[in-house]
Write a structure and sequence with these properties.
5-stranded mixed beta sheet, 2 domains, alpha+beta, 2 helices
């Protein structure tokens, strides 16, 4: 999987893809996608709670993060840090963090003691109350408030 850019230092990277609290399915999918989209990865390592991939293309790394969120549902955070200046131009390193949700579409869950069904997971989480039919729209930053019901 390690494939660096020609003419660059072997440890060169522009972006860091961080997978946290993910299943083996997400890691396998990510590695398959990296191969398919020909994303150069200078190194990858297992870290506490997940994996880190040091990638050589900001745009492809961002797109992969969005693909993970669309496919598996979860929190996606994209940040950029000023790395250096080259010819009076600011160069940034991007960090793409993906944290998988602990529930899936159609799961029954508890949110503040009420029972809901996960209706949709895209950029946000959409819930529907099983008793009242009330619909809620939550951000992934609040996903830890959602508890999966055991039926």
């Amino acid at each position: 999987m390690v494939r660096s850019l020609e003419g660059k230092h072997p440890n060169y990277y522009e972006s860091l893809l961080q997978l946290r609290d993910v299943t083996a399915e997400v890691i396998d999918f990510t590695e398959d996608e990296i191969e398919q989209i020909h994303l150069p990865v200078s190194k990858h390592k297992k870290v506490t709670g997940g994996m880190d991939y040091y990638c050589s293309d900001n745009n492809l790394t961002r797109a992969l993060g969005k693909t993970l969120q669309d496919r598996f549902g979860g929190e996606l955070k994209i940040t950029a840090t000023l790395h250096t200046k080259k010819n009076d131009k600011d160069l940034y390193r991007t960090t793409v963090l993906f944290r998988e949700a602990h529930f899936r579409k159609d799961d029954k869950v508890k949110y503040y003691g009420e029972e809901y069904v996960i209706k949709r997971m895209s950029k946000d989480i959409f819930l529907q109350n099983t008793k009242t039919g009330e619909k809620l729209h939550l951000k992934y930053k609040d996903m830890n408030l959602i508890k999966k019901s055991i039926d």
